[in-house]
Amino acid sequence: MNLSQTNGTAGGSARRDSLLTALLKNLMVTCLCLLINYVNGVQIHTFRKHQELYEDPRYILFIHMVVNDAVQLSTTTALFVLSYTLYRIQVSVCCVFILLAVFTTRNTPLNLAAMALECYVAVCRPLRHAQICTARRTLLLIALIWLLCVTPDVTDLFFTLATEPLSFFHQSVFCLRSNIFKGPVLARKRTAFDVLYFCCVFLTLLFTYLKVLFAARALSTQRTSAQKARKTILLHGAQLFMCLLSYVSPSAEVLLQLIFPGQILEIRFANFLIVYVLPRCLSPIIYGFRDRKF
């Protein structure tokens, strides 16, 4: 296996990384993945140790996001490393990686919306918070989130199974979503679902932020908690923006390649770090480090 293969994020570019560059890039990505997942593991351990967190919807949603981020980061890092070491992998194996990465990526904005709604209820409906936000309802909400995340791309899989011959799944390809789930119809459907999900999440964050903002002004007794919730929702908005980068990054790559035509691999490596690795650092900051109870 040659580590100087084409950069996995380059999607088959003719330019190759040197052996040293490939090693350094893979080492950097792997170390970041291990570091972030170590922090995530500590937070999961903390959650498991304290029984009172099991019944708190806020921390149930938080730990769900932490686990989701850990899976997403591990999957994308594995794909990055495999793109250097194997370059091409079997379609059936690639399907598993791609679907897991897509599910966990789409999961994040919906989880953000759920966490923002919990903040809204805690500040604006404090007397009904215990009644509305129960552990059981939170688990049902998480199940609904996964159903919404899985459904669009499972239909892509069924469409591919119905239209491609069985031999296709035994071929070796460069593991990209567009190489597995082909066709303009599927691409348009994915775009429609992505736009729909992000508009719904954005409107949810905007609604909850404005409600919490007005509550902070009107209720002097709840001002401190409302201000904290408002800052948390703003951070959720920053997370949503970083999630959005994964959908605009292909167009940004094309523009940057026109400006810096000789730096295609560097652009795509930076894009991988900014879009898929660094956003996974935000969850520990928002709750793990800011929250006194946790």
From TrEMBL:
Membrane in keyword set: yes
Protein's organism: Tetraodon nigroviridis (Spotted green pufferfish)
Compartments where located: Membrane
UniProt protein name: Odorant receptor, family 90, subfamily A, member 1
Transmembrane annotation, as ranges: 20-39, 59-81, 87-105, 138-159, 195-220, 232-249, 269-289
InterPro entries reported in the protein's UniProt record: GPCR1_Superfamily_Member (IPR052921), GPCR_Rhodpsn (IPR000276), GPCR_Rhodpsn_7TM (IPR017452)
Pfam entry (one): 7tm_1
Lineage: superkingdom: Eukaryota
Main subcellular localisation: membrane
PANTHER family listed in its UniProt record: G_PROTEIN_RECEP_F1_2 DOMAIN-CONTAINING PROTEIN, ODORANT RECEPTOR
Keywords of this entry: Membrane, Transmembrane, Transmembrane helix
Annotated ranges, domain G-protein coupled receptors family 1 profile: 39-287
Keyword Transmembrane helix: yes
Any one of the GO CC terms: membrane
